[in-house]
């Protein structure tokens, strides 16, 4: 049975429309100094504003520290009741803090709460020092 020209044209149109580029939406109005939105599959930048601006990582470092702490707990290299001495370096941390004093011994469990709930830089540094030396 021969293919009719109309059927062939309809098929060609359907294939070309199926592969047409989807327009990128207008970037959102955000109250942020900088942002980058990337398509996870292709790696293509969908929207960005001040993408090259260097910024402090803020609490993202606390997430990584938390991951390392919980991994150490799971691997039994650390226990919740184990005490951590607060160093002068941790005590001097700027920004959000738990106000732990130099030389005090604080259980890992309390420091984890200080890191997560209070976003304490001093607690985060003390935990990082305990695990990483």
Polypeptide structure, described:
- With 133 residues, the chain is of the alpha+beta class.
- The chain has 2 domains: 23-54, no CATH class; 60-132, no CATH class.
- The chain has 5 helices and 4 strands; from the N terminus they run αββαβαβαα.
- The chain has helices at 5-18, 60-74, 88-91, 108-116, 121-132; strands at residues 35-38, 45-49, 83-85, 105-107.
- The strands form 2 sheets. A two-stranded antiparallel sheet has the order 1-2. A two-stranded antiparallel sheet has the order 3-4.
- Strand 1 and strand 2 (45-49) form a beta hairpin.
- Helix 2 (60-74) packs across helix 5 (121-132) and helix 4 (108-116) crosses helix 5 (121-132).
- The relative contact order is 0.12.
**Strand share of the residues?**
5-15%
Estimate the helix proportion, in percent.
40-55%
Largest sheet geometry: 2 strands, antiparallel
Rough shape?
A: elongated
Q: Please give the order of strands in the largest beta sheet.
A: 1-2
The helix-strand sequence is HEEHEHEHH
Average pLDDT taken over every residue: 88
Number of strands: 4
Kindly, what is the distance between the CA atoms of the first and last residues, rounded to a whole number of angstroms?
78 Å
Integer count of domains: 2
Provide the structure class: alpha+beta
Unreliable segments of 5+ consecutive residues? none
């Amino acid at each position: 049975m021969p293919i009719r020209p109309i059927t062939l044209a309809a098929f060609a149109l359907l294939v070309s429309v199926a592969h047409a580029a989807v327009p990128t939406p207008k970037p959102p109005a955000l109250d942020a100094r900088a942002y980058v939105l990337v398509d996870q599959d292709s790696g293509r930048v969908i929207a960005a504003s001040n993408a090259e601006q260097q910024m402090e990582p803020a609490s993202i470092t606390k997430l990584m520290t938390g991951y390392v702490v919980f991994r150490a707990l799971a691997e039994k290299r650390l226990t919740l009741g184990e005490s951590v001495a607060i160093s002068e370096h941790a005590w001097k941390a700027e920004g959000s803090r738990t106000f732990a004093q130099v030389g005090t011994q604080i259980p890992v469990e309390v420091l984890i709460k200080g890191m997560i709930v209070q976003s304490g830089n001093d607690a985060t540094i003390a935990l990082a020092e305990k695990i990483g030396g």
